[in-house]
Design goal:
Blueprint: H1 2-40, H2 46-55, H3 68-80, H4 82-104, H5 110-121, H6 135-138, H7 140-156, H8 159-173, H9 180-190, H10 196-199, H11 203-224, H12 228-242, H13 252-263, H14 265-273, H15 281-287, H16 290-313, H17 329-334, H18 341-368, H19 383-397, E1 404-407, H20 409-416, E2 425-428, H21 440-446, E3 448-453, H22 461-469, E4 474-483, E5 494-503
Parallel strand pairs: 1-2, 1-3
Antiparallel strand pairs: 3-5, 4-5
Helix pairs in contact: 1-4, 1-18, 2-3, 2-20, 3-4, 4-5, 4-7, 5-18, 7-8, 8-11, 9-16, 19-20
């Protein structure tokens, strides 16, 4: 009897070893993905610079998106600097994996849950694209978390589960409106005749009220700001369809769907290499139930909604909209495999090889890719050198602190987030409504530093007003900076044009 217990214990320990080794590997993997871009990149990605500057203003909305993602990003940047933006991205991926594991264990064994985590990491969106923390990356855990809460709510029918659906749904809508493509299928699911009994309960309605309550401050902001993000989204959709014919614009879903399949390519390859460990159809059908059917529905329905909208209305589809949609892919694929220690060990080794390759390529691309590219990527820009030039120029002509930067969105965002003493506001080019924290009076009091590249068209209505009506209140200085590219000594330097609007009370002559 004792011998049998010891044998069972040894078998259990052996079955856990592959996962324990992989957890150790993951700790190294995620550490590298946080530290390496911090050390190797000379600049943060575009969406990161944009989000940090938005978040520093603590608005209830911004002209492109709801506010939550930017708030969180700025908070991590304020606490940890450049390390924080990559730390946040990888914590988002880790949280998604935790939720994938939790959801899988609702239906299958822990071994299948481990496999689900492995397969999720094979989806390309969780690799290099995750470095650029934006509203799509921020949705990774929200989509899986919503599926987990909705699954619990439908299967357990408890008030707490429905309230969590409302909370996560509200948080999701404060992150990006595209969460509606998951919320809508959830609402439609409740309209199926088999689910009508759920609507007779007050719980789903309370969930909806919680969601609306969380979203309501942003909704009020939308009303006060002429529905700016929706107008922006409509404009982007128009851009996506303007170059296409009336007919072809209704078939954008084909390219979108192909991109999503390509994002799953590593997962499909690993699955193919383990096809001998697939469950038989008869075995899978025997264990198939309504709960599993719900996961398949939540996995596929958002894509069907997007395809239907494209077919019927011709709305433009952007490939990156698919980034958060596939948190259930790894779960469903893992459920097709025999949940054994042997399979887990085999898949773990393959995934470690893949992640190691991806990590090496990531470091090589960020650290040395500039030597091969004709055109620098956003992460090749000399962010610190640019910010230092701006600081030196401003301090040479003004005795007052730099309050705002403006002009080219990319340049001004980099300068704003890298000022040593305080973070100036960014006045975003375009409509004055894009920067509600700026005003003519603020510019009159503090001035601004404008930057642009040659041939750039910069639209700053507030500055036009200053030039037209208050030019006598300022001294205006202008010039150029020449900034060398990091690691490319043979490349022509970056030429940045600048103008400094200095209130006369702050003005001091150039040396």
């Amino acid at each position: 009897m004792i011998s049998g217990q010891q044998s069972t214990k040894r078998s259990s320990m052996h079955s856990r070893k592959p996962w324990h080794y992989f957890l150790f590997f993951l700790s190294i993997y995620f550490t590298i993905w946080v530290v390496a871009p911090t050390l190797l990149a000379s600049s943060v990605p575009l969406d990161v610079s944009e989000g940090v500057n938005w978040g520093s203003e603590w608005q209830w909305g911004y002209y492109k998106h709801p506010p939550l993602s930017s708030w969180v990003l700025y908070s991590f940047y304020a606490l940890f600097g450049h390390l924080g933006v990559y730390l946040l991205s990888q914590l988002t991926v880790i949280l998604t994996l935790v939720l994938v594991y939790a959801l899988t264990t609702k239906l299958w064994s822990k071994t299948t849950a481990y496999l689900a985590v492995l397969f999720t990491l094979l989806i390309l969106y969780y690799g290099y694209p995750s470095l650029e923390f934006n509203h799509n990356v921020a949705q990774f855990p929200i989509w899986v978390g919503l599926c987990l809460c909705f699954f619990n709510a439908v299967t357990r029918q408890r008030l707490s589960d429905w309230l969590w659906v409302g909370v996560i749904g509200g948080i999701g809508m404060l992150t990006k409106y595209s969460v509606i493509f998951l919320l809508l299928p959830m609402a439609l699911y409740l309209l199926y005749p088999k689910q009508w009994h759920l609507l007779k309960s007050p719980y789903p309605w309370l969930s909806a009220l919680v969601m609306l309550a969380i979203f309501s401050p942003h909704f009020y902001w939308l009303m006060q700001h002429d529905w700016l993000p929706l107008t922006y989204a409509q404009g982007r959709t128009h851009e996506a369809t303007a170059s296409a014919s009336a007919i072809s614009s209704h078939f954008k879903f084909i390219g979108f769907s192909l991109t999503q399949i390509l994002a799953h390519l590593p997962l499909l390859v690993i699955l193919l290499l383990n096809r001998q460990h697939l469950l038989s159809r008869s075995t899978y059908k025997q264990q198939y139930n309504q709960s599993q059917q719900l996961l398949y529905y939540l996995w596929l329905a958002p894509l069907m909604v997007l395809i239907a909208l494209n077919l019927l209305l011709g709305i433009g589809l952007r490939d990156m909209w698919g980034m958060p949609m596939w948190g259930l892919s790894g779960i469903l694929v893992a459920s097709w495999l025999i949940p054994s220690s042997k399979v887990l060990q085999r898949v773990s080794k393959m995934v470690m090889i893949w992640l190691s390759m991806v990590t090496i390529l990531m470091m090589a691309y960020i650290g040395y890719g500039h030597q091969l590219r004709d055109k620098p990527s956003r992460m090749d820009w000399s962010e610190q050198a640019l910010a230092k030039k701006a600081e030196q120029t401003w301090s040479s002509v003004s005795s007052c602190p730099l309050d705002s930067v403006s002009g080219d969105r990319w340049l001004s965002a980099l300068v704003a987030m890298n000022q040593p003493d305080s973070m100036p506001s960014q006045m975003i080019s375009g409509s004055a409504s894009h920067s509600p924290w700026m005003s003519t009076e603020r510019l009159r009091q503090h001035g601004t530093l404008v930057m642009w590249l040659a041939d750039d068209k910069v639209s700053l209505p507030l500055l036009d007003d200053i030039n037209a009506q208050h030019s006598s209140d300022f001294k205006v200085y202008q010039g150029q900076w020449q900034i060398s590219w990091m690691g490319k000594t043979d490349a022509k330097p970056l030429i940045v044009h600048w103008q400094a609007y200095i209130p006369k009370r702050c003005s001091q002559s150039l040396p």
